[in-house]
Amino acid sequence: KQAEKTVHQKKEQSKTKCRKARRRHINLVAEFNRRQRKNIWLETHVWHAKRFHMVKKWGYSLGDSPTEKCYRACYRAMTNHCLLQDLSYYCCLELTGKENELLKQLARISSVDTGLTFEEACCLSGRFEGSLNLYRADRYPEDMLGPVTFIWKPRNDSENRQLWIWLHPALKQDILRELKAIFQCREPEEMYTPEPVTASVQEEKQMDVVLSLGKKRKKEDKEGERAVPVKKIIGDGTRDPFQSYSWVSQTTGIVISDRTMEVLRYRLIGPLSHSVLTETLKAASLQTV
């Protein structure tokens, strides 16, 4: 009787989990944020990390070369189908203000001798994207800063215009410094510091469970810092998240904003690129209030 009683009291053993499931972090968001302390991930990082050799450049973690021999597949996609590239690591600077004032100062860092300028009619209307080389103010043809691409927001009833300039992260600091100088932009007096968004109650409870598992996971990293709770990553690899990201000119009213990692950018190559965009993007119905 005692033996039969013992058999019935035995709990049903749970199925043994695979090694991948046992090694999986209890909170992937917290783990991903911890791994982005030094190098920011793109939106497509997880996809690339499984298929590419990753490199650390310009404050980002980027896919360098594929782990498989897929060069022929990429070439076929470029020539016959569609190939997508993630260019979100390119920096985006937004200029807002009066059109005449913007063109007047931007003419100092560009030249008509190199080709298109910010004043080109096809680009100024906002229908096409332009590209040019930037120089230090009034220093052409010396002191070249680097190539950039730009696009204007189409005109509306307001006299203010918006201009987006895309540039390589290695050129960002020099070009941003030159733009702030020609527009005489300064940081606003009451600078808003973007605080990371706190996690929900459920995520905080999950993080408490992670910290309580002292035997399995360390509460501190190699630098002796406490584990960071689940928070939204604000900023990018070329800017400290607690630095200013907007500058205003008191004389002209021009505003320079850093939109890096806020506006994602993808490049589609191939004859079926427009077909892919047509099937993917749907026009929204305009609703007037």
TrEMBL record:
Coiled coil: none annotated. InterPro entries: Pop1, Pop1_N. Residues 3-97 form the Pop1 N-terminal domain. One of its GO terms (cellular component) is ribonuclease MRP complex. One of its GO terms (biological process) is tRNA 5'-leader removal. This is POP1 protein. The gene is Pop1.
